[in-house]
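Slide 14.
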Amino acid sequence: MLRSKPWIYLNGYPGVGKLTIARELCKLIPNSKIIHNHLIIDLCRSVFERASDEYESLRMAVRQEVLTMISSTEIGRQTTYIFTGAHVVSNPVGPMTATQHKSLADLENVPFISIVIMCQNYEEHMARATSLPRQPSSNSQGKLTDVGTLRDIRQLELFKFNCDNELEVDVSELTEIEAANMIKQYIDSVEGQIHS
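Slide 15: predicted structure.
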């Protein structure tokens, strides 16, 4: 069996630029794909109300099936997957969702790389989170843009895997291209260690 390409998990508060960075990172990594958190959220939200138990059950089942397929098929193992999430420690669903990825990666011997995206500068974070592409008129994904809610979320501890291959990146003064390049360098160094 071929050695699996890594799974890269970008976690950070809403509005820090995870998807934008993931898109730039995808340009730098041959044969890579993005599975951002709203792909599954929006699908499940179209079936059940987000606050319902049925929604969470469906979301968990869809995610598990996707992860199983990409970790156990030849084409999936030959692709680098970039995931995004916005998980905090105090919401038990968040860490459970995130660890679902790492647990399956470990089980299937898929290299797992955690990237924690932060924007320490409050004003910069709010500017990014409320930028035009995230506004409801151009935001089909229901992204969070409410400054008060974002401020409250920033008070919560961000989930971290605390695993061997974890990088924290403060994007306050970085463009998405600079952040993607920094992350790519880290991924290359991790892959170099794995293959040596």
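Speaker note: Residues 126 and 168 are 20 Å apart (CA to CA).
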